[in-house]
Design a protein that fits this description.
The chain is α+β, with helices and mostly antiparallel strands. It has one domain: 4-Layer Sandwich (CNF1/YfiH-like putative cysteine hydrolases). The strands form 3 sheets. The protein has a 6-stranded mixed beta sheet. The longest helix has 15 residues. It starts with a strand and ends with a helix. The relative contact order is 0.20. One of its GO terms (molecular function) is copper ion binding. InterPro entries: Cu_polyphenol_OxRdtase, Cu_polyphenol_OxRdtase_sf, Cytotoxic_necrot_fac-like_cat. Keywords: Copper, Hydrolase, Metal-binding, Transferase, Zinc.
């Protein structure tokens, strides 16, 4: 179920990166799929999310329809607590609204759980020690180059965040993420730290190194918790599974009663 789990301590913030093990999904989605909700069996999706929430003791999980952009969605405590258990499934469930289109979620108040869904792209979780603001960011190649991480950091700082920490989760590594030479040159002109070479000697991009470089330039402390999704069988991988696969998530949540100075004031 978890590749990494750090349950809430005195700060009241929990961090988790799931894997594909221990779920109810079948076929290409075997077994702990938390994405591709339009294709997987509804009963399996509900079972997987129930197991996650029950294990962590959290309420509904906030997700978005990720579109490889830079839009930030801000979640307040009221919206999070009012969400139904099926809200993460969007209009897959009759009567529920479609998911908001965004690639980062930020919350600065109340008990809330934010998730980002990935299967090779980079999940980045952010927290601030001063305000207890949190964020979950989908940083694929396009979003990374477009500035989604800078946008998320900026949104948190606009709400008073000062001392930011980031956790970079499992994603495809630079030794596996082959790209055309022209694409590599274009990407590295924006973020030089992306430049890499595959294990078979062709041009590639190191998304983890690129994310770390961007975050550190924004004065964010970075923790890398990022085995390669393509080569590690614990994970769903878009490339490794030839485009038919599920999603793991990066999840960050706050526990009720732990409120940072800015939110309290």
């Amino acid at each position: 179920m978890f590749a990494y789990l750090n349950e809430p301590g005195v700060e009241g913030i929990g961090i988790a990166f799931t894997d594909r093990l221990g779920g109810a999904s079948r076929g290409q989605f075997t077994s702990f799929n938390l994405g591709h909700t339009d294709e997987d069996e509804l009963s399996a999706l509900r079972t997987n999310m129930h197991r996650l929430r029950e294990r962590l003791g959290i309420g509904p999980v906030c997700v978005v329809k990720q579109v490889h952009g830079t839009t930030i969605r801000t979640i307040d405590a009221g919206a999070a607590l009012a969400a139904s258990e099926d809200a993460w499934l969007g209009d897959r469930v009759e009567g529920l609204a479609p998911l908001a289109r965004a690639d980062a979620q930020v919350s600065t108040s109340g008990a809330v759980a934010l998730a980002v869904r990935v299967a090779d792209c980079v999940p980045v979780l952010l927290a601030d020690e001063a305000t207890h603001a949190i964020a979950a960011v989908h940083a694929g190649r396009v979003g990374l180059l477009s500035g989604v991480l800078q946008a998320a950091v900026g949104a948190m700082r606009a709400h008073g965040a000062r001392t930011l920490v980031a956790w970079v989760g499992p994603h495809i590594c630079g030794r596996c993420y082959e790209v055309p030479a022209a694409m590599q040159e274009q990407a590295c002109a924006v973020i030089p730290a992306l430049r890499a070479t595959t294990s078979w000697g062709t041009p590639s991009l190191d998304l983890g190194a690129g994310a770390q470089d961007v975050l550190e330039r924004e004065a964010v402390q970075v923790h890398r918790l990022d085995p390669c999704t393509r080569t590690d069988a614990r994970f769903f991988s878009h490339r490794g599974d030839h485009g038919r696969t599920g999603n793991q998530i990066g999840l960050i949540w706050r526990v009720a009663g732990h409120v940072g100075p800015a939110a309290a004031g």
